[in-house]
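Fold this sequence, please.
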Amino acid sequence: MKKTKKFTYTLAAIIAVIVFFISSFVGGGAAIVHAATSAKEAYEATNVWDNLQGSTIAGNAFDIKDYPYSENGKPQAISFIEFGYSYYANKQADFGLYVYVYNPQQIALDTDSERNNVSLLINGGEQWRHYRLRFLNYSNAAGYEGRFYKFEITLSDEAKNDILSEHKTNRVYEIGEITLSYKNTATAYPVAQKYTYSGFAEGYGSELATSDTLCCVVDNFERYIELDVKHTEYRPEGDYYNGEQSQLNSVYFRVPEKFFTDYGELTEIACEWYEYFTRPLLVSNDKHTVDAINSLYGRVTRMLPTDEYYLFMVFWENLKSNWFQYSQQDTVTSNYDYTGKWYKFDFLWGGEIDFNDSNFFPGYAAAFYSKNLDLNSVDNAVSGDTVLERLREHSEHWEGGKILDRYCEVMFEKYVQDGYNRGYNYKSIKNTDKMEIFWNTLKTKSLWQKMFGSDVEVDTHYEELEAIKVIEDKDLTGSNDEISENLRINKGDVTKLSAEYAKAKLKKERLVLFRYSTTKYMCAPSVFARCDGSEIDSGTSDGEILANDCYYLWKDKNWNCYTVQETVYLDFDIISLTYTNDDVETIIPVVMSPMDIAGDLTPPLKDPTSDGSGCNGVNWKLIFGVVVLVVVLILTYPLWSHLIGYVLDAVIWLVTLPFRAIGALFKKKKE
């Protein structure tokens, strides 16, 4: 049902002009002060409570009885103001867009939050976009403190120029949702109103105009979708290689069936997020060590108390060998000064650890306890929600500004993975777009390579997946493992996704799986050792205690922790869905509260070269087997040497048999 009402809003403009002129003259006009104050600045300085008095909202005179206090009420955008529109270039500096919000609970909204925004489509543009809200003031009348809020919509230069670049009789602004932050939690509220402005406030239209012709028509619209969005990720199996694992990032949500029947196929999804790459994260089954790292709140390892020394070693690359020499690219962090030192072990086989400036990293952003640590199982994964919660907790112990009001910069690297943008990202992804994942398999090698080792040789396999998939019955048949592989989702999320699909069928909805990004999940096996600081302080061991322990843990593959770095998506938000029917596109705005997304922390893939079976390292079992075989053959030579002649005769007879048969046929024919 479409509801249209006339809405004339001139009071704000009149107040602004009056304030402007009054503030320009004091003392009977004898002196001019505040001459630089513009009408826009004067209007913004007026309180929202004063602006509302005597105004008309949605065709009705403002009455405070229509906006009571409500313990369970939700914030509402009740008015949208276009101020100072003009097609004269010298008058366009006053232009601005404003939103008045009714706050029935009178809660203290986060006024300085960069997460406050509004979803807006201007003049029937091609895409909905989110624009940040700048807080101006709230009502301060006794008993009504915070009942109403006043925000300016912060327009991009491109959006402002689009509005002001030509004379438009009608300016159309469609608002889908408004997102407001309270105690660092951002929540979206539907608005679903279209404001059509025409005419001009006095002083902004024709120079000959002597009256105010500004008018606004407000239309409610029902074409919007409220989404409950859930996240999942997928990491394909394969061979461990350089600590890299492909990760497919997806979300899924239910959409009413009527949007498909009325508007056609879902062909495009517009979304946004803030992308960051975490500093190293530690997962261990040693709670004492986890607590020690977390006590730093992401600060450098060197700040650990020196009554206990730690050494962490992270092995990012596959084991490599060159005859009898082992080498491994690793990074280390410690609160003991190892710089410029090296320690040698297993002198017969040349094992050593070399510490230098290039292989040290400052420390871990956070640590996580996994009681039943098993590097061959993902069943004890650390949830992504736990990761984000820990990063937020650590951020509270740092001074200064925060990313999106919640995360300290030091929780993340100064870079993101190649090909991606650090910080804000806007994407409009079509159903024809593909998301690519990969996995590795090691190539088969020669006997010589298997015996004496060489660098890893890898086959990388790629798969392209459709970005937008509407789930069907056939997609959810089979075991959880089979469904996970079929849809390329986390095995742990299969039950939840299946439940959402059942709910969708019951409510006449469809379930959409939206694949929006692929990244690399960086995860490497690690070891750590710790000892009483007094042992090192004695000067007798000079750090060899820790290095020795770490070396033999690594040599025997007794991993007691693993290290992760992953991409996180902060304030992920779907803005609109586009449907297409017979080449006619319909863009539907979305109401969705932004969400923070991080994948679960799972152990690294097993390194097939580290168990003595494969292509890397000297394979002593294989060498020993070959040597034994040769020795046995030599010792038993008298027993089998006389058989060689018989074997050779048999081979020759078998090889020449076809030729002798052909010769016999020709001979018979000749006879």
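The longest strand covers residues 509-532. The mean pLDDT is 86.
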